[in-house]
Write a structure and sequence with these properties.
Layout: H1 17-29, H2 36-49, H3 60-74, E1 82-85, H4 91-99, E2 103-106
Parallel strand pairs: 1-2
């Protein structure tokens, strides 16, 4: 039996001249993060979504932790508040909930929509 070892690509890596120029500017600045380009992105994104401030994060997990921490301070939450989520999620969702001092409460999903069942809350 012959096994076909054809590579299946997720996407095509194509870095154009404009992108290479931007990468070079960042590398030449000596600031990989929290540099000029990051500040530009934060300002443009804040304007785009209609808010005064924006914080760029390195990952979705970091964004979740930042948002949950902001909620704790904004609403002065001192107890261990509960957050409803589904067990059918990526592990970083629950990690962010626990790391920020919240308690995850798992609610079952609707097998047709894969969304939380509202009547299960």
């Amino acid at each position: 039996m012959k096994i076909n070892k054809r590579r299946i690509s997720v996407g095509c890596l194509e870095i154009g001249k404009r992108e290479r120029k931007g990468i070079k500017e960042v590398l030449d600045s000596g600031r990989i993060s929290e540099g000029v380009k990051t500040c530009e992105l934060e300002k443009k994104w804040a304007r785009f979504v209609g808010t005064k401030y924006c914080v760029a994060t390195s990952s979705g997990t970091a964004a979740l932790i930042t948002a949950l921490t902001a909620l704790k301070y904004l609403y002065k939450l001192e107890k261990r508040p509960k957050i409803i989520t589904t067990p059918l999620t990526y592990v970083s969702v629950v990690n962010a909930i626990v790391l920020t001092g919240f308690e995850p409460v798992f609610v079952d999903i609707d097998p047709l929509t894969f969304c939380i069942k509202p009547d299960a809350i």
